[in-house]
């Protein structure tokens, strides 16, 4: 650690805060992934609040702020929270979220009262428990193997290691009991037991971090990185890796931002994590709002393109006197920006030829168009034949469905209809090839 | 005589002390395809999960091949209802099928190449190899059900319990599942299925268990799946049983 001594005291503090923040965040985020997947995000919140009376009682009984006693106290209350919630829910007929809300707020309140009554004069005030003193993590030091390190490191590092070890060793058991607890139980992996072990680890992690880091950060890190990672991937390993990365990034960026704006470090780390979540909600490749918007726009554009192609195809069939002008074509499919864009993109794809007075299908466009018209007419025939719809009711539903009927469904429809060559209106159903030359406009 | 695959003695199951299944007593013959049939709320699924030890029995006992369930886990395969799990879970079809091998592996040991190979074969058996690496949300309802079946196959059991495997699947998947179940039966396995479509009972099953809070009848389909028994099962609940259940919930009469 010689290099540490070469750093300025400020830089050293910053690095320690980042490191301890990153370790705490990661320890929480890894467990948090499973809480999110088990739809128990709130239970992490509940436990991290509810452990307060456990800490106070441990202090009253032992008379010291020794981490070991603190842990035992918190562990007992943490498991009690989980058990009380379940008892209220199962046997008291209370909804699970309501049961949890009642249990953890009551326990937290009890903790606050106990502190006020018996904890005066001790460095254990509720404000500190909530916000933490991450900024001062550097001041409270212990000697480890001849090196002076922050005490918080000594409490969080083993917890992080334990959490990691648990996830690796019981990977398979956690997976099956999170995904399908009933199956896990029938196989002899007691889902209930694993649930309580997970809760115990949440309680342990909370205690290890509460003193310096504060429970706000713990609560945020138990939920936000896991939830963010879940939006970004659909593989469990990747999800855990991403959650850990978000946890570390939140610590580093949070510390930088807190220094920059001179504010509470733990709070800032939580805010940064929240920003990551927000970004994932907007930009996630599959579920993000932006990609949904883009997807919707793409679909709308495809539909308007197909409508244009089908219209041109029908005009050819009718051997229209004069070709359709670009403006008319755009008007005919509803006009507006989308239709204009549709026409432009068809020309770009080489499916139509257009000049200022006429729009015509190219050979390639005609093939595409005949596919769409085939879908449309097959669907009309199907509606009349199997759903008994009258002739004047089939065009609109078919105009909607034509965009969704792919090659396979076309084949099935054709087979079901025993290859009727015409639609219910007596028009030829194209075979998906260029239509027979019938004196088209060309 | 070897013990039967499933023997239920006087099983009563209660939720919050209120009995929902009364004194079920039956035996299922080896190598048969068994349908559990009855109206909504008759306790079909409850019967299944009670046998699997997922809820405690109020009284009675269940034996799988002559021993309690806890000692016969490895003989048993289970297909829960499809809606009972979260299909957004970040796992692939392959991951889900591999879970079938976990029971045999026991605690801590991870599935290896042999398990992966077995899981792939099971996926192939249900026609889903091509979808092995898909996340499970991307599968259709029928494909999800096939994945669940493949997972049960991976359990490599002697007796299978399936909770409504035909619920919400398309016609071709239903046919594929039926053929699979019949193949299992022909291979000497016993398959017990909670089923709700009366139309197909006679076609699919060799043996029928008719339930409606109590056992109406249990036996070969030809002699058990009769108008008379169906009338008993579907002709309304026995009001006295409802009354009695309510009385148990309230506690001893004054």
Describe this structure in words.
The complex is a heterodimer of chains A (442) and B (254). In chain A, 72% of the residues lie in helices and 3% in strands. With 442 residues, chain A is mainly alpha-helical. Chain A folds into two domains: 10-284, ABC transporter involved in vitamin B12 uptake, BtuC (Orthogonal Bundle); 292-416, Orthogonal Bundle (Arc Repressor Mutant, subunit A), CATH 1.10.10. In chain A, strand 3 and strand 4 form a beta hairpin. The longest helix of chain A is centred in the first third of the chain and has 29 residues, at 9-37. Chain B is of the alpha/beta class and 254 residues long. Chain B has a single domain (6-250), classed as P-loop containing nucleotide triphosphate hydrolases (Rossmann fold). The mean pLDDT of chain B is 91. The interface between A and B is medium-sized, with 28 and 32 residues.
Chain-wise SSE layout:
The complex is a heterodimer of chains A (442) and B (254).
Chain A: H1 2-6, H2 9-37, H3 41-62, H4 67-92, H5 96-118, H6 126-131, E1 141-144, E2 147-150, H7 151-169, H8 171-179, H9 181-186, H10 191-213, H11 215-232, H12 236-260, H13 265-283, H14 289-317, H15 326-332, H16 336-348, E3 352-354, E4 359-361, H17 363-386, H18 395-401, H19 407-416
Antiparallel strand pairs in A: 1-2, 3-4
Helix pairs in contact in A: 2-3, 2-7, 2-10, 2-11, 2-12, 3-4, 3-5, 3-10, 3-11, 4-5, 4-10, 7-10, 10-11, 11-12, 11-13, 12-13, 14-16, 14-17, 15-16, 17-18, 17-19
Chain B: E1 6-15, E2 18-28, E3 33-37, H1 44-51, E4 59-64, E5 76-79, H2 93-99, H3 102-105, H4 113-125, H5 141-154, E6 159-163, H6 171-186, E7 190-194, H7 198-204, E8 207-212, E9 214-220, H8 221-224, H9 227-234, H10 239-250
Parallel strand pairs in B: 3-7, 3-8, 5-6, 6-7
Antiparallel strand pairs in B: 1-2, 1-4, 8-9
Helix pairs in contact in B: 2-4, 2-5, 4-5
């Amino acid at each position: 650690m010689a290099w540490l001594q070469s750093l300025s005291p400020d830089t050293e503090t910053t690095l320690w805060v980042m490191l301890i923040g990153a370790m705490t965040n990661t320890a929480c985020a890894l467990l948090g992934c499973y809480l999110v997947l088990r739809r128990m995000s709130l239970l992490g919140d509940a436990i991290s609040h509810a452990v307060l009376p456990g800490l106070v009682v441990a202090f009253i009984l032992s008379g010291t702020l020794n981490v070991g006693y603190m842990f035992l106290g918190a562990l007992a209350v943490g498991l009690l929270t989980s058990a009380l919630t379940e008892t209220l829910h199962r046997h008291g007929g209370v909804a699970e979220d309501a049961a949890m809300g009642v249990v953890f707020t009551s326990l937290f309140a009890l903790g606050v009262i106990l502190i006020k009554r018996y904890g005066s004069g001790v460095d254990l005030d509720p404000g500190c428990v909530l916000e933490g003193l991450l900024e001062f993590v550097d001041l409270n030091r212990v000697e480890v193997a001849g090196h002076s390190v922050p005490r918080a490191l000594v409490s969080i590092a083993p917890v992080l290691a334990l959490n990691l070890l648990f996830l690796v060793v019981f990977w398979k058991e956690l997976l099956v009991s999170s995904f399908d607890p009933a199956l896990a139980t029938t196989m002899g992996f007691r889902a209930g037991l694993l649930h309580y072990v997970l809760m115990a680890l949440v309680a342990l992690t909370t205690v290890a971090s509460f003193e310096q880091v504060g429970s706000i950060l713990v609560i945020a890190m138990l939920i936000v990185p896991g939830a963010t990672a879940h939006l970004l991937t659909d593989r469990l390993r990747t999800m855990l890796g991403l959650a850990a990365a978000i946890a570390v990034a939140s610590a580093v960026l949070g510390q930088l931002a807190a220094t920059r704006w001179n504010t509470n470090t733990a709070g800032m780390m939580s805010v940064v994590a929240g920003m990551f979540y927000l970004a994932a909600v907007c930009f996630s490749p599959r579920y993000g709002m932006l990609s949904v918007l883009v997807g919707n726009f793409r679909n709308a554009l495809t539909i308007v393109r197909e409508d244009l192609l089908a219209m041109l195809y029908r005009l050819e069939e009718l051997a229209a006197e004069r070709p359709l002008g670009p403006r008319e074509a755009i008007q005919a499919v509803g006009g507006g920006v989308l239709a204009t864009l549709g026409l432009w993109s068809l020309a770009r794809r080489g499916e139509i030829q257009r000049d200022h007075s006429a729009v015509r299908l190219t050979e390639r466009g005609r093939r595409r168009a005949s596919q769409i018209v085939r879908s449309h007419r097959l669907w009309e025939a199907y509606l009349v034949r199997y759903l008994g719809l009258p002739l004047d009711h089939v065009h609109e539903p078919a105009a909607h469905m034509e965009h969704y009927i792919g090659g396979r469904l076309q084949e099935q429809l054709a087979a079901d209809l025993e290859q009727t060559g015409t639609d219910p209106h007596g028009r030829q159903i194209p075979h998906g090839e260029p239509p027979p030359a019938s004196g088209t406009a060309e | 005589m070897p013990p039967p695959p499933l023997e239920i003695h006087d099983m009563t199951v209660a939720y919050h002390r209120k009995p929902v299944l009364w004194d079920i007593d039956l035996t299922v013959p080896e190598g048969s395809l068994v349908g559990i049939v009855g109206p909504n709320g008759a306790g079909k699924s409850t019967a299944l999960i009670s046998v699997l030890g997922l809820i405690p029995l109020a009284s009675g006992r269940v034996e799988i091949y002559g021993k309690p369930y806890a000692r016969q886990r490895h003989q048993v395969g289970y297909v829960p209802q499809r809606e009972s799990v979260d299909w957004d879970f970040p796992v692939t079809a392959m991951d889900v099928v591999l879970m079938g091998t976990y029971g045999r592996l026991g605690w801590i040991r991870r599935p290896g190449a042999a398990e992966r190979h077995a899981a792939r074969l099971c996926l192939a058996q249900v026609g889903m190899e091509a979808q092995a690496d898909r996340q499970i949300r991307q599968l259709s309802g029928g494909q999800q059900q096939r994945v669940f079946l493949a997972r049960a196959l991976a359990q490599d059991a002697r007796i299978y319990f399936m909770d409504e495997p035909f619920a919400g699947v398309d016609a071709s998947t239903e046919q594929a599942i039926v053929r699979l179940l019949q193949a299992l039966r022909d291979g000497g396995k016993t398959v017990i299925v909670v089923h709700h479509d009366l139309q197909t009972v006679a076609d699919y099953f060799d043996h029928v268990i008719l339930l409606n809070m109590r056992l109406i009848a249990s036996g070969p389909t030809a002699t058990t799946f009769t108008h008379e028994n169906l009338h008993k099962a579907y002709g309304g609940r026995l009001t006295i049983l409802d009354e009695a259940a309510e009385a148990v919930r309230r506690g001893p009469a004054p």
